[in-house]
């Protein structure tokens, strides 16, 4: 079986071609161009460093020759030269390391920022496919490894052939026969190292994937830590973590084996070359073909001819790892941004909805959508919500209410049909412009780490502190905030004060009030609030609904009381529509849901057959 076939079988992926390598460098080229000055500087220091290598050999040759011929003046000069070379070498090395490190840090920052910006523009469907921990690993680990391709790797890939070329010219001048023999050892080292480097890339990709998997697992366990303890799952997840770490260790052990094999291959070729040349050189000195000084200079320089071959392969090994990591970045970077998907239907640019003056109307015309392309989550939905009206969506779990919200928010494109806001089809509007017109209050409002003031301010980043307080008052959360020792500066979110469901909802309502959008989507909390909290939320919601068009997913009948129309959904379709009393008298799904709730059962989680 061919070696490449074995690799393909092992990794499920073909060995990288030259075209792929060129593609990688093309990808990084814009980053390198951005810092061309630094790269030019590195090139100059490289040339200087190669010159210093030759100068050292020249120094050795001459000082030994002067010693053999008892030339004391010559020795003194050579010592002076030696000290001068030494200082130049140290200075060049310092600036090379400094500029290279700083440039790499800048490129790393740019790459991470680009990846992050792209991630924030990706559609909801992308986030459904990837674990957040895996994405974090791509952002943190893979970018770090990927940058190696244009950092140390690139510098060495230029430096090593340059050194080898210069060393060969110099050695050839001293002893052509020995130099040509020496040259034969290079390809031997290169071939063995190239074979290893291919495996190294596959192993590198597997390690990066495994790191992503572990990161995903850890994020998940940390997010669900309360559940882990509640169900005493510590041991189960510890075992799972240990298993995944074990797999990582196996891959890392393979990596160590490959690295060791790689180095041994290089060493065998290097040592054989050294022994051969010392032996042949000694004969040449004995027969007067070569001076002792030249042999010493030869030996000091010969390593610079053979080691670049192994060094190059080593660099390719590192490059392979960088490529493996870059592949994982591409997987994300090649995903079309949300704007590209949502506006794929046409590049027409409709009029951007103006800043809010009056509530907007909303219309869904024969809208269907499927997450998996097999089963419709919503099917032929036609619904007109006149400006300023309140429409309540009710229905059993899985009826398609949240999906409808996601379509209105443009997290997905309908498979068929169209949505119109204020009589403008979505296809003519940019997604961010559409969202600017919508205030969305989620079922479980998310609070970011930061103060309460900062969290409310997310509704409108340009709002003043006075506006924040006004919104909080309207949302019935102001008094509660003031009762906290640090008031609006109280830290909430993951590491902050824990708030109740009702308090979080009211902060979210304050956020929505601050946004002051003409259209409101309110997803009522399913978890029951205590009656005081419930009335505070209801009161706040009423204010929020004023002079807005509202679509509310209602899990409790209290919200429905104010609705102009109640839309009943089941299995992705609208099955009933009308006023509360009218729907009750029909004796259909709504009346059954109402009956269940009146008897103390929660409608949102009851499967009711239509
Ligand atoms: N991200 C998703 N990927 C695949 N299928 C999904 C996704 N989200 C929802 N679904 C499916 O789409 C259908 C409609 O779900 P949806 O969440 O819209 O119902 P719902 O009426 O809002 O339910 P609930 O009241 O429980 O929130 C369900 O069959 C659900 O399993």
UniProtKB/TrEMBL annotation:
Pfam families recorded: ABC_membrane, ABC_tran
InterPro entries: AAA+_ATPase (IPR003593), ABC1_TM_dom (IPR011527), ABC1_TM_sf (IPR036640), ABC_transporter-like_ATP-bd (IPR003439), ABC_transporter-like_CS (IPR017871), P-loop_NTPase (IPR027417), Type_1_exporter (IPR039421)
Annotated TM spans: 36-60, 72-99, 145-172, 178-200, 264-283
GO molecular-function term, one example from the UniProt record: ATP hydrolysis activity
PROSITE patterns: ABC_TM1F, ABC_TRANSPORTER_1, ABC_TRANSPORTER_2
Main location: membrane
Membrane topology summary: Multi-pass membrane protein
Ranges for domain ABC transporter: 362-596
Record's keyword annotation contains Transmembrane: yes
Matching SMART domains: AAA
GO CC annotation: plasma membrane
Ranges of residues in domain ABC transmembrane type-1: 40-321
Subcellular compartments: Cell membrane
Protein keywords: ATP-binding, Membrane, Nucleotide-binding, Transmembrane, Transmembrane helix
Protein family per UniProt: Belongs to the ABC transporter superfamily.
Protein name (record): ABC transporter ATP-binding protein
Native organism: Alicyclobacillus mengziensis
